[in-house]
Amino acid sequence: MEKYKMDFKEEVPKYIQISKHIKSLIETGKVKNEEKLPTIRVLAKMLSVNNDTIISAYKKLKNEGYAYIKMGSGTYAKAKDAYVKLKKDYSDLFKKMDKKKFDMYVDFAEENPCGEYFPIENFKSVVNEVLTRDGLNALVYQETLGYEGLRNSISKYLWHGAIDEDKIIIVSGAQQGIDIISKAIVNINDNVAVEKPTYSGALSVFKWRRANIFEINLNDDGIDLDEFEKVLKKNYIKCFYTMTYFQNPTGISYSTEKKREILKLADKYDFYIIEDDYLSEIQYKDDFGYISFKSLDTKDRVIYIKSFSKIFLPGIRIGYLIMPDLLVEQIENSKMTTDISTSSLMQRALDLYIKHGYWRSYISKINSLFKARYYYMHDKLEDILGNKVKVNDPCGGFSFYLKISDSINLNCTDLFYRCKKEKVLITPGVFFYKNNDDGLKYFKVGFSKTDEDKILKGINIINSIL
């Protein structure tokens, strides 16, 4: 009980000081996970405070995830998972660091084009055109589906009229799209299938919905179909979430044949395919080609998600969904409960940006700019890291997914912290798996925020640590 004793400072409420002290005991291991905390009466007497102070302290610990209550038994410590701390440390890097500090780092973690390449004059011209044309109307809320002009442009210029604009709904980026779909079709204890590994944001959404998540291993051309069908035979799967081009994190792209087979399975076993079109435009092979799940979908089984934020500018949160007929009402209602409307001004500006041909010319520019950097980084990873890691070759996107050799006694969590100390930022593989331990030998490195000098510097630092 001695460890619970403490001295109080007058300027801070006592219940906050008590909760911080116990939190520190849990974080340092002096109070073990699942260890029972002193009863309210005993701790109040020891610290010479009233019972209500301890009740407030325990309530604060519970709200922060450091304690839980067993009815009729008492309050117990809940040690934070090491991966929870890792995620917090990782996200804090991008929340709290300004551009000046970031310039000191080799940033292999972020994955969107550098702002310096964005044709700001084109964007300024369409914003000014919108304000001149529409005035205050450009700043008012739009209907739930989104600005009609943008939906029309998406249908006409991006889908060549093959998709009815009434089946398109504008959202604030891919993450919101996944969330809206999940709210519309996934209930507690529903079964969902995902690729293994997969986008951490999708995992978080499905976990938050308290769904049962089935992971399907990836081969070089997409998921293992035999494994997937075994899962489908034993469990009613509500939906399958997939990134079919330059999958996050592996960089794998699906073969057209495999897409057709999965569409057959969707019809046979009655599930929806959530197709997250991540970075399909960013291709470095001239003959790569592009055929989406949605374009092959004849049974209305695919819910298509596309975000402009990753390629356009991250601060402009716009994307869209293509809804199956049977889910239009559910998805629209889900969107309404999520937010009223996506930015009206940005929707109108993006509409003109697409109509004037700026979008296609920008994509062409991005592919040209990053192609050389892609091949430079790939070659340096293979030349310098050699047999220390296995290097993938996605031929598109902004990153490489690397596996640390089994002969090296180091995991990606330790590598992250050691790289961070050396001013290099990587993304640990543990984020991309339902069971974090499955990703301990993997990490991801991106090149969209680095020039060739920094790429070389960062790879050499990673090499020295490995």
Short description:
The chain is α/β, with parallel strands linked by helices and 466 residues long. Helices cover 44% and strands 15% of the residues. The protein has 17 helices and 16 strands.
Mind explaining what this structure looks like?
GO terms for molecular function: transaminase activity. Residues 12-80 form the HTH gntR-type domain. With 466 residues, the protein is α/β, with parallel strands linked by helices. The protein has three domains: 12-80, Arc Repressor Mutant, subunit A, CATH 1.10.10.10; 83-110 and 365-465, Aspartate Aminotransferase, domain 1 (Alpha-Beta Complex), CATH 3.90.1150.10; 120-360, Type I PLP-dependent aspartate aminotransferase-like (Major domain) (Aspartate Aminotransferase, domain 2, 3-Layer(aba) Sandwich). Helix content is 44%, strand content 15%. The chain has 17 helices and 16 strands. It has helices at residues 14-27, 40-47, 51-63, 82-96, 99-102, 120-134, 148-158, 174-185, 200-208, 225-234, 256-269, 293-296, 328-338, 344-355, 358-385, 412-421, 452-465; strands at 67-70, 74-77, 106-107, 168-171, 191-196, 212-219, 222-223, 237-242, 272-277, 302-307, 319-322, 389-391, 399-404, 424-425, 427-428, 442-446. The strands form four sheets. It has an eight-stranded mixed sheet, sandwiched between helices. Strands 12-13-16-15 form a four-stranded antiparallel sheet, with helices on one face. Strands 1-2 form a two-stranded antiparallel sheet. Helix 9 (200-208) links the parallel strand 5 and strand 6. Helix 8 crosses helix 13. The longest helix has 28 residues, at 358-385. The protein is globular, with a radius of gyration of 25 Å. It starts with 13 loop residues before the first helix and ends with a helix. The model has no long low-confidence stretch (mean pLDDT 91).
